[in-house]
Amino acid sequence: MFNLVIFGPPGAGKGTQSAKIIEKYNLAHISTGDMFRMHITQETELGKKVKELLAEGILVPDSITINMLEEEVNANPDVSGFIFDGFPRTVAQAEALDEFLKTKNEKIDLVLQLDVNEDEIKKRIAERQKVSGRADDDASKLIKRIDEYFQKTVHVLPYYQEQGKLVKIEGIGEIETIFSNITAEIDQYI
Ligand code: AMP
């Protein structure tokens, strides 16, 4: 198995690159954000619990998030590996993921950080707003999620750096160039 974590602020191109990685390497994609949104759409109990938090761009409590993730991993026993997207977002989640994978004799192999600085991300959003001609509510929520990333989620990076698993990928540039830098890293494992 090959297990990858992809990191990066909202708007860094994580979704785009994840889709390309999945296609090339046949990994199962687990995006906790997508899973929460699915629960909200389907109006499940979990969906009702997390709806407000997502609307505000606030992190869902670790225990809820970890449980949901573990269930999803358990539901996919025959895959060749996972790409974790949007998880872990806290050190507690990273530790829980390691513990959980250990029970399956598995581990995180590689953590890719799509590196785009805060100013660049906010500039992209401002440009998008200019094009659409409105300073809408979605944009302010997006800014909130970006702040959450730079204030909280980045603290997970040293956890993986200490384990020697963290690789930084320049996140500004052509999609294909970024992807080829990503595959150069993954190909060292697969
Ligand atoms: P995303 O699509 O990954 O940006 O996630 C959207 C929203 O889902 C986040 O703003 C959080 O409210 C929630 N969320 C997703 N993943 C996590 C996580 N690992 N821990 C806590 N909350 C999360």
From TrEMBL:
It is found in: Cytoplasm. ATP binds at G11, A12, G13, K14, G15, T16, R128, G173. Pathway: Purine metabolism; AMP biosynthesis via salvage pathway; AMP from ADP: step 1/1. It holds the Pfam family ADK. Keywords: ATP-binding, Cytoplasm, Kinase, Nucleotide biosynthesis, Nucleotide-binding, Transferase. Its EC number is 2.7.4.3. Monomer. This is Adenylate kinase. The lineage of its organism: Bacteria, Pseudomonadati, Bacteroidota, Cytophagia, Cytophagales.
